[in-house]
């Protein structure tokens, strides 16, 4: 049995990120949100593209207005109107001003904008009622970004702010990493699909649905291979197919010590190397992590081999092991250059939290904001790993380290924050 932190290190070390040559695709900007940028973006445009006004007002020469006041205003002749989107025609001479609007190009000769509220207009003349700062309200060309330098680095997730930057930089299409392919199947003679009537002893294969949703939320592509009977021949065929088509394979069930738990034996017969068989955690103890022969010499997963997770069958164990181990692996595989590891917060616990202290224990619940401070509320009902009913609405897992048997109400606890919260 390995500790949770060793298991995380082993798993992340096995993951080789998608390949820059083979694993990228071009997508339209509007379809690029949540994708991972594969190639750095450089723009030939400066930002701002030209000196422009930050206010509606008057473009002036600072030297003309530096001593202006309400009592002794400078009086300037307005020689041009410059709305946003137009090129100024005149050069501002001493004693002159241009009427200008937010975003409009500063005319030659002017170096400062006086905002409208600090002026008074009389026909074709403007009275400057207060001295501005030199260059006030001028947004200088290239002061936000200089053409030719790196605008966005590779390996970042494209969210709304990056999409806006790329639009402004006129990048209608982008090179992104393809979505990681994650094959999913469930094992067990007792399992039926969601639409089949239940016979005695049967249950619905909820794990397949849970994993499909989790994989989709992670930005990867789920490939659903259905329910596989506890039959070694069928299992071997499905596993061999799964590892051939996917980057990551997730099976659930069949990894414990029961007579019908075949997964480890079959992946060994397929010459997989098993790196982890069980982890000191609850739920999630029987967890198999393996790689297949196409791995390279130092046993990293190459872009064309699969990392295999044999997740335990119990529904709570599936979710917890996905959040704790599979999600970081998908993130590293996806091409994101940092932030793969799970995020833990220190928060106050609202409830008493208990463990037998023998394994690192994960209790599910919800983070609530109380006066701006997060508080963990444990889900009511049974925390058996066979109970998935009270997992609904979970947005955090409280973690009791090995050896810790209780955390009292109002005591500090570490929680794993889940992105679906
Ligand atoms: N003698 C021991 N027995 C068990 C141990 C152990 O250490 N010694 N570990 C227990 C723990 S902890 C877990 S977790 C489970 C893991 O079992 P398996 O991975 O072999 O899973 P199964 O036996 O196939 O199923 C366990 C449980 O989960 C239900 N299940 C399975 N698949 C699904 C699915 N797709 N959707 C919903 N529910 C599913 C299944 O019906 C069983 O109730 O082993 C313990 N036993
Ligand atoms: O560790 Mo098991 O995963 O308790 O249910
Ligand atoms: Mg079993």
TrEMBL record:
CDD domains: MoeA
Broadest EC class assigned to this enzyme: transferase
Reaction catalysed by this enzyme: adenylyl-molybdopterin + molybdate = Mo-molybdopterin + AMP + H(+)
Residue ranges annotated for the MoaB/Mog domain, each copy included: 183-332
Required co-factors: Mg(2+)
One GO process term, biological-process aspect: Mo-molybdopterin cofactor biosynthetic process
InterPro entries (alphabetical): MoaB/Mog-like_dom_sf, MoaB/Mog_dom, MoCF_biosynth_CS, MoeA-like, MoeA_C_domain_IV, MoeA_C_domain_IV_sf, MoeA_linker/N, MoeA_linker/N_sf
Signal peptide: none
Pathway named in the protein's UniProt entry: Cofactor biosynthesis; molybdopterin biosynthesis
Any one cellular-component term (Gene Ontology): cytosol
Record keywords: Magnesium, Metal-binding, Molybdenum, Molybdenum cofactor biosynthesis, Transferase
EC number: 2.10.1.1
Molecular-function GO term, any one: metal ion binding
NCBIfam families the record matches: Glp_gephyrin (NF045515), molyb_syn (TIGR00177)
Function: Catalyzes the insertion of molybdate into adenylated molybdopterin with the concomitant release of AMP.
The family this protein is said to belong to: Belongs to the MoeA family.
PANTHER family: GEPHYRIN, MOLYBDOPTERIN BIOSYNTHESIS PROTEIN
Protein name: Molybdopterin molybdenumtransferase
Lineage of origin: Bacteria, Bacillati, Cyanobacteriota, Cyanophyceae, Nostocales
């Amino acid at each position: 049995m390995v500790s949770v932190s060793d298991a995380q290190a082993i798993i992340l070390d096995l993951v080789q990120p998608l390949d820059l040559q083979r694993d990228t695709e071009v997508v339209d900007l509007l379809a690029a949100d949540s994708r991972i940028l594969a190639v750095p973006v450089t723009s030939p445009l400066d930002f701002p593209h030209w000196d422009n006004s930050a206010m509606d007002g008057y473009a002036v020469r600072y030297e003309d207005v530096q001593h202006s006041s309400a009592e002794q205003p400078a009086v300037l002749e307005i020689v041009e109107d410059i709305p946003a989107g137009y090129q100024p025609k005149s050069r501002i001479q001493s004693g002159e001003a241009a009427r200008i609007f937010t975003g409009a190009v500063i005319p030659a000769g002017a170096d400062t904008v006086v905002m409208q509220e600090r002026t008074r207009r009389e026909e074709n003349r403007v009275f400057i009622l207060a001295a501005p700062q030199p260059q006030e309200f001028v947004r200088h060309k290239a002061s936000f970004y200089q053409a030719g330098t790196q605008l966005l680095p590779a390996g970042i997730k494209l969210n709304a702010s990056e999409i806006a930057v790329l639009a402004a930089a006129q990048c209608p299409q982008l090179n992104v990493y393809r979505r990681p392919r994650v094959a999913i199947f469930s094992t067990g003679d007792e399992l039926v699909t969601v639409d089949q009537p239940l016979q005695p002893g049967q249950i619905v294969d909820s794990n397949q649905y849970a994993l499909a949703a989790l994989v989709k939320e992670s930005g990867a592509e789920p490939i659903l291979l259905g329910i596989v009977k506890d039959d070694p021949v069928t299992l071997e065929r499905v596993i061999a197919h799964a590892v051939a088509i996917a980057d990551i394979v997730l099976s659930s069930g069949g990894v414990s010590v029961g007579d019908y738990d075949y997964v480890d034996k079959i992946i060994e017969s397929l010459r997989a190397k098993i790196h982890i068989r069980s982890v000191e955690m609850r739920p999630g103890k029987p967890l198999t992590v393996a790689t297949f022969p196409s791995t390279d010499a130092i046993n990293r997963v190459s872009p064309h081999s699969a990392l295999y997770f044999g997740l335990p069958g119990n529904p709570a164990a599936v979710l917890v092991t996905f959040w704790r181990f599979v999600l970081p692996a998908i993130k590293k595989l996806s091409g994101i250059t940092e932030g793969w590891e799970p995020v833990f917060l220190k928060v106050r616990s609202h409830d008493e939290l208990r463990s037998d202290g023998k394994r690192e224990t994960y209790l599910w619940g919800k983070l609530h904001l109380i006066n701006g401070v997060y508080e963990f509320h444990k889900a009511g009902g049974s925390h058996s790993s066979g109970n998935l009913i009270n997992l609904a609405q979970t947005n955090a897992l409280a973690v009791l380290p090995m050896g810790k048997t209780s955390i009292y109400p109002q005591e500090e606890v570490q929680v794993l924050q889940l992105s679906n919260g």
